[in-house]
TrEMBL record:
It is found in: Membrane. The keyword GTP-binding does not apply. This is SulP family inorganic anion transporter. The lineage of its organism: Bacteria, Pseudomonadati, Bacteroidota, Cytophagia, Cytophagales. The keyword Membrane applies. It comes from Ravibacter arvi.
Length: 525
């Protein structure tokens, strides 16, 4: 334990600045998701609780080096409907606790193995899609059109609008002050991205995002003093609940309604939350591991347990459900985080900030934070990624593009499901095509055809092998060689046996087999 602790602390000079950046990104996302999930301004703090718990509790118990957890936009509809169904937020908190217990159980039952079965093309498509969504969704905030909550990822928007129509309204109803702040913020961030800036000692420890936030606050205060018509206020700024006393602050925390144990709907909500939150976390784990410069692998079973502990804790003190989320995780990577100490630091900074400086945080313009997220989005969806996937061939590029498009037009889980279907199709097609090698030789007595079966021959190869056998020329000799195969599925053995015993004699085909069991003695090859 001491070795791990020392290792975490040794990277604090990288992790602490990254934690600051992630906390700045997480703050409006937590508030936005809370408002969208509950529809109640008095429950805004529930999003912050989830963000703090996702940083501290999940950060300490997870072994994900760069993953950051918190309230997820992908759960908004589920949470909103669940609260309406259960009749109270306190009953919903009980469902969150039960969902966490189910996740812990799933972790101990090794259900995290599911995370290893998402094709690379789909995961990269998810990353690119999140990047494009960030760009499309943050442009309105950068222009000062803040109708949607910060962090929304859904294609559909209120009043029949969608991601693309929102861009038109953003241009139509833009705010000059916000545009000035976002343009300056973006320019400063790009400057900080230049190699020569990183050679300056001060900026090795002070993140560009922090400078930009302070600059955004300063510019807006200057507007208020010399050009009031440009000053941003209200919905254009972070809107953090401010407690007037310690008693009021602790009043932000809520307890589950334990009497709801007798309500069957609580268990339905708990199961739904556990499944969806676990899938989102496992997807984010895979994606974050691909972004990790050190290419470390996160133990997925341990991650489920950590997420479960996070949800139990969040539910017990009045927070929304937590998942690992790719936006905050990718911001952590881009900010130079090296270990999970960055995640823990972001949670602690959130906690300290909402206690000590909530009024100062409410001075932050959303257009400044939008500039930070625009840069994160661009780095996730760089043109080089699309070019690289295209060079890998259609079997990788098509599932990648389909995943990107499907996520943009629906949501994360539906898009991933559509991408998975396409990726699995290409996997099956490849499996179909490469189940054996075919060699044909001519001799005086007729054609001699050799089929050498591959190392693993499953029922998925049944169609291609059966079709090849049916198309063999009459009056030929065929050698079916399974000596190199580790395992041949029963279905394939049955096709070979039926062909050898029944079809081949009728067409005067002589069949020789090597290393292939008779059907009636199948018990493995």
């Amino acid at each position: 334990m001491s070795v791990n602790k020392n290792k975490l602390l040794s990277n604090l000079k990288s992790d602490f600045p990254a934690g600051i950046v992630v906390s700045l990104v997480a703050l409006p996302l937590c508030l936005g998701v809370a408002l969208a999930s509950t529809g109640r301004p008095d429950l805004l703090f529930s999003g912050l609780i989830a963000g703090i718990v996702g940083g501290v509790v999940v950060g300490f118990t997870s072994q994900s080096s760069l993953g950051v957890s918190g309230p997820a936009a992908g759960l908004v509809v589920i949470v909103l409907n669940a609260i309406a169904t259960l009749g109270s937020f306190e009953a919903f908190l009980l469902a969150v606790v039960l969902a966490g217990l189910l996740q812990i159980l799933a972790g101990f039952l090794k259900a995290g193995i599911i995370g290893y079965y998402f094709p690379s093309s789909v995961i990269k498509g998810m990353l690119a899609a999140i990047g494009l969504i960030l760009i499309l969704k943050q442009i309105p905030h950068a222009l000062g059109f803040d109708a949607e909550f910060m962090g929304n990822q859904a294609f559909d928007a209120p009043e029949g609008k969608n991601t693309f129509t929102e861009l038109w309204y953003a241009v139509k109803y833009s705010t000059t002050g916000a545009i000035i702040i976002s343009v300056i913020s973006l320019a400063v961030l790009l400057l900080f991205d230049r190699p020569f800036m990183k050679s300056i000692q001060l900026f090795k420890f002070v993140p560009g995002a922090l400078i930009v936030v302070l600059l955004g606050i300063g510019i807006n205060l200057l507007f208020g003093a010399v050009a009031p018509q440009l000053a941003l206020e209200g919905q254009h700024l972070v809107q953090l609940p401010v407690a007037g006393s310690a008693e009021e602050f602790f009043g932000f925390f809520r307890l589950p309604d334990w009497s709801a144990f007798t309500n069957p709907a609580v268990y339905t909500v708990a199961i739904t939350l556990a499944i969806v939150a676990s899938l989102e976390s496992l997807l984010s784990v895979e994606a974050t591991d691909k972004l990790d410069p050190y290419k470390r692998n996160t133990p997925t079973n341990r991650e489920l347990i950590a997420q479960g502990l996070g949800n139990v804790t969040s539910g017990l003190i009045g927070g929304l459900p937590v998942t690992q989320v790719i936006v905050r995780s990718s911001a952590n990577v881009e900010a130079g985080g090296k270990t999970r100490m960055a995640t823990i630091t972001h949670g602690l900074i959130l906690l300290v900030s909402v206690i000590l400086i909530p009024k100062f945080l409410n001075l932050i313009p959303l257009s400044t934070l939008a500039a930070i997220l625009l840069l994160v989005g661009f780095k996730l969806a760089k043109p080089a990624l699309f070019k690289g996937m295209y060079r890998l061939g259609w079997e990788q590029f098509i599932p990648f593009v389909v995943t990107v498009t499907a996520i943009l037009m629906t949501d994360l889980l539906k898009g991933i499901a559509i991408g998975m279907v396409v990726a699995v199709y290409f996997i099956l097609r490849k499996n179909y095509q490469h189940s054996y090698s075919y060699r044909k030789e001519n001799s005086q007595s007729g054609d001699v055809i050799t089929l050498v079966l591959s190392e693993e021959v499953t029922f998925l190869n049944k169609g291609s092998i059966g079709q090849t056998l049916d198309n063999l020329p009459s009056d030929s000799t065929v050698v079916i060689d399974g000596s190199r195969s580790v395992d041949i599925d029963y279905d394939v053995l049955e096709i070979i046996q039926n062909f050898k015993s029944h079809t081949a004699p009728l067409r005067n085909i002589t069949v020789h087999t090597k290393g292939i069991s008779e059907v009636n003695s199948v018990g493995g090859h």
